[in-house]
Specification:
16 helices, Polyamine Oxidase, Chain A, domain 2, five-stranded parallel beta sheet, globular, FAD/NAD(P)-binding domain, alpha/beta, 3 domains
């Protein structure tokens, strides 16, 4: 049976490994880091666990098609509790508080109570969300592949999605920030512009609300790294191997086909290669010469990376009385990477067992913005560490004004900039997702190059905006292409 090399042990690489082994291929995953997961990760500092990837999971609900994939690869199982926080998000503004409840009827009534002047727009939004609740990401098979169990979207499910498709252009054609301007309430404008990022397509906002309202979007207890570890365990239990501290330098190509990899200066022979490293980086760095096919040129020109600076705090206090996800304005803007932030939003893990020592709390927050060049300049001039500390101190001061129990009780802080993401993920500009530009068709790139045989691509960069579902789905597709090319039956169930 063919021996397959997989570049990267993120969710896409691990998923590809599981499906490859289930389908009978020998498989070896090469990972530059010391742990699996890629962007789906977390880390410990002085007894605190900081969630650095997943904050909610599409496909956590058994009613979704994607849930079957998560179970097939071992990411979820009946023994993994799913926590559906409600309200999903709280925003506090002056003397007002707004809650994003999962129940769409409750949410509608609450929003109207908070902002009666916007009742018409609120009812229009919630009417659309009810339509989008019927949309489920279908899991389909590659045309022509033999499968042990066929997957296809049912005609009835497709028919149920027709009303939502009629409304999609309205949201796809504008940013979340532009959509938010339809509301008179400053509270609603702030909430809707910042919920998914004001420069993101409003589709992201509408579908986030629909995902939550449908009962999906839960958080598997243990979080990102635990989920990645479960997939890695499934893969290794099937006989697959992972070689850590093994950055891949190049895909070896001869006579128009991949014949292996160059790893740590050593050429390793393989029959096929699945590349799950950030595709924007891979097309330039893993091929000599770089890929120049039309789709690769489009990717270079059009990829719109989402970047964040990530601040984590270990607090020597029990913050169980603070909402689990809460946003609020700050009296003094927080400066980060050349940008000023008038609002902060924190994730509070006080209710989660194992995230902090007894009586303590782990907090995290993202500061969105393309700050890559600014941080790169700070690295170049030697002030990088100093600026990370200054940012941490500014965030701590802002939070202490809001929550007095934080004052003087910070045990540990950690700042991850886009340069941090770049170092650990080897991702384009340190980004971990791609922006969906308003008015543009969803960018999608092929699972196979045109000019090189036995190479397959997977990962979140294949289809914007990316994320965990895209990583898993594209990995499944890549293995199906491999099966089709090798005349092998694709096995999509755990054995």
């Amino acid at each position: 049976m063919a021996h397959v090399a997989i570049v990267g042990a993120g969710i896409a690489g691990l998923t590809a490994g599981v499906y490859a082994r289930q389908s009978g291929f020998d498989a070896t995953i090469f990972e530059s880091h010391t742990i699996p997961g890629g962007a789906s990760t977390s880390w410990r500092r002085k007894g605190y666990l900081f969630e650095g990837g997943m904050h909610w999971l599409t496909g956590s609900s058994p009613r979704t098609a994607l849930n079957a994939v998560w179970n097939e690869i071992g990411a979820l199982n009946p023994d993994v509790p799913i926590y559906n926080r409600d309200p999903f998000l709280v925003y506090e503004f002056e003397e007002q508080t707004i809650c994003l409840y999962r129940d769409i009827d409750r949410l509608e009534a609450h929003l109207i109570d908070v902002a009666p002047e916007d009742e018409r727009e609120i009812r229009r939004l919630t009417k659309d969300v009810r339509k989008f609740m019927k949309v489920d990401m279908p899991i389909t098979d590659v045309k022509g592949v033999q499968t042990a169990s066929k997957r296809a979207a049912s005609p009835l499910s497709m028919l149920a999605m027709v009303p939502s498709m009629m409304r999609m252009p309205f949201y796809a054609g504008q940013t979340a920030g532009t959509f938010a301007e339809r509301f008179s309430s400053p509270l609603l404008r702030t909430l809707f512009s910042g919920m998914v990022g004001e420069d993101m397509s409003a589709m992201g906002l509408a579908f986030t609300l629909a995902t939550l309202a449908s009962g999906d979007g839960g958080y598997p207890l243990g979080g990102s790294l635990a989920m990645a570890a479960r997939i890695a365990e499934t893969y290794q239990g099937l006989g697959g191997t992972i070689e850590y501290r093994c950055p891949v330098e190049r895909v070896a190509v001869e006579d128009g086909r991949a014949v292996g990899l160059v790893v740590n200066g050593e050429r390793r022979a393989f029959d096929a290669v699945i590349v799950t490293q950030d595709l924007r980086m891979a097309i330039d760095e893993l091929f000599d010469p770089p890929l120049v096919e039309d789709w690769a040129q489009r990717l270079r020109a059009n990829v719109s990376p989402i970047l964040d600076t990530f601040v984590s705090l270990g607090i020597r206090a029990d913050l169980s009385d603070v909402p689990e996800s809460v946003g609020f304005p700050v009296s003094e803007p927080v400066f980060c990477g050349g940008q000023h932030h008038d609002n902060l939003a924190i994730n509070n893990y006080a209710a989660y067992e194992g995230y902090a020592p007894e009586g303590c709390t782990a907090l995290t927050l993202f500061l969105n913005g393309d700050t890559y060049d600014w941080w790169a300049d700070r690295m170049a001039d030697g002030t990088y560490a100093q600026e990370k500390q200054r940012l941490a101190e500014a965030v701590i001061a802002a939070l202490a004004k809001k929550y007095q129990q934080i004052e003087g009780r910070v045990d540990v802080w950690d700042v991850a900039t886009p340069l941090t993401y770049e170092r650990y993920l080897h991702s384009y500009k340190g980004s971990w997702m791609s922006n969906m530009k308003p008015g543009e068709k969803m960018a999608s790139y092929p699972s196979k190059p045109e000019g090189i045989a036995h190479v397959y691509f997977a990962g979140q960069r294949i289809t914007a905006p990316g994320g965990l579902p895209t990583a898993a789905e594209t990995a499944r597709t890549a293995v199906q292409h491999l099966c089709k090319d090798e005349g092998v039956v694709f096995q999509g169930a755990r054995r």
